[in-house]
Design brief:
It is built from 14 helices and seven strands. With about 300 residues, the chain is mainly alpha-helical. The protein folds into two domains: about 220 residues, 3-Layer(aba) Sandwich (Rossmann fold), CATH 3.40.50.300; about 60 residues, Histone, subunit A. Helix 12 packs antiparallel against helix 13. It is globular, with a radius of gyration of 21 Å. The relative contact order is 0.15.
């Protein structure tokens, strides 16, 4: 695991030369076809040398969730184990890792009639009023939501009205995780030199532009069936260049916003990782530059 631009792919490919592993992609953007440059997808030569499962298999218009990933990852893990090798999961989509490890809570399905009643109440009273109602029945969930966060307030109230149990309580009852089924080693690549990481992120994004990233986004834009409401197009970099093709900004502004958004993504990933239980945290840099993580990981694995 690691934030964007921390060297996850290079490390995984290097470890594959020493260990009997097969790689599984854990990147929510690299699952999509025709989104290669902007997702920093391994190039064809790397994929020939070190094939990645769950990569480039989903159309950008197709919905795909963390629950879908957990199902697919378990299938690929079983296949790898049956072949006598070890699954090595590589990526920065922390929610995917979390759902795979811990499972999901079983929540009631949406009820259109109850949902409509909640919407009508919101139309009359406003969402802050419904947020106050939620505080009375599920204070824990309400504390995490803004009073105008309509969709999540609606879902939390819907769950309570269907099940008679707070959403927060149901979410504590997780099912389907793999934590108790495998011996799991977790490695978190942790950057410490923020300036160095920011520089690396900018250099990598500018290199993507040189490789034709704008053309890649333009082809997706011209398809006509994709829009900014879709998770694929909301991916960092794609969203900002989409605004350029929509005429909302010039190209230089889009590039600048994309670099900033990538830094923000990296910060969120690092926040996840610093609080991640049971992980071996490996520094990827020091005051002078990036470190070699290959030998660090190999030594740890040999000592298990």
């Amino acid at each position: 695991m690691g934030p964007t631009a921390s060297g996850k792919t290079d490390l995984a490919v290097a470890l594959r030369k020493h260990l009997p592993v097969e790689l599984i992609n854990v990147d929510s953007a690299q699952i999509y076809r025709d989104m290669d440059i902007g997702t920093a997808k391994p190039d064809s030569e790397t994929l020939r040398a070190a094939p990645h499962r769950l990569i480039s298999f989903c159309d950008p218009a197709q919905p795909y969730s963390a629950a879908d990933f957990a199902t697919d990852a378990k299938r690929e893990m079983a296949d790898i184990i049956a072949s006598g090798r070890v699954p090595l999961l590589v990526g920065g989509s922390m929610l995917y890792f979390k759902v795979l490890l811990e499972g999901l809570s079983k929540l009631p399905e949406a009820n259109p009639e109850i949902r409509e009643h909640i919407q009508q109440q919101a139309d009359r009273e406003g969402w802050p009023s419904l947020h106050s109602e939620l505080q009375k029945v599920d204070a824990q969930t309400a504390s995490r939501l803004h009073p105008n966060h309509s969709q999540r307030i609606q879902r939390a109230l819907e769950v309570y009205r269907i099940a008679g149990v707070p959403l927060s309580e149901l979410q504590m009852k997780l099912q389907g995780g793999i934590q108790d089924d495998f011996d799991i080693c977790q490695f978190a690549l942790i950057p410490h030199n923020r300036a160095l990481l920011h520089q690396r992120i900018e250099q990598r994004f500018l290199a993507m532009m040189d490789q034709g990233f704008a053309t890649e986004v333009e082809k997706l834009y011209q398809r006509g069936d994709l829009n900014l409401d879709m998770p694929a197009i909301r991916s960092v970099g794609y969203r900002q260049l989409w605004d350029y093709f929509d005429g909302r900004c010039d190209l230089n502004e889009a590039v600048g916003k994309a670099i900033i958004a990538t830094r923000q993504l990296s910060k969120r990933q690092q926040t996840w990782l610093r609080n991640w239980p049971n992980s071996v945290q490996i520094p990827v840099d020091d005051a002078s530059g990036y470190l070699s993580t290959d030998s660090h990981c190999e030594l740890f694995l040999k000592n298990l």
